[in-house]
Amino acid sequence: MKTKLVLIVAGILLCSNYLLAQNSNKNEKTLKNVTIDNNKILVYIYRISNLSANEVLPVDCDDTIIGNFAPKNYYICILNPGKHVFSSGCENVDELFLKGEPNQTYYIEIKPKFGINHARCKLLLIDNVRGQKDLSKCEFHGMNKQARIFFNN
Fold first, then answer.
1. What is the value of pTM for the model shown?
2. Helix (DSSP H) and strand (DSSP E) numbers for the chain
């Protein structure tokens, strides 16, 4: 009797995990294929490279911490149009200046490089075609407050 009960509970857990994973995949696809409006800009920040995989790479936007990126992670920012400074402080400090136009989408790749004691990094503005392709290989990491409001999250 106990064996049957354990098997039933295990089956229910497996089914629920499968359904949650399917729902998560649908949400991931939705997050990766967004059209922005409302006079805002959409920025995907991602790290695809496994170089220095044991180190997370920090990224800030306008002196606000976005997060620490492990390989194959992405983050969503919805910002007001205008000038923004993205920076990453690894062994070096790299900055990317973005002048965001309303209703546009931008892709920023965090590219790790070899350093002496820690990884160095470079922030690169990537074209939309390559950015979407790279993003398809990454998992969702987080989003800023404006993006949570936009996605009702």
1. 0.77
2. 3, 9
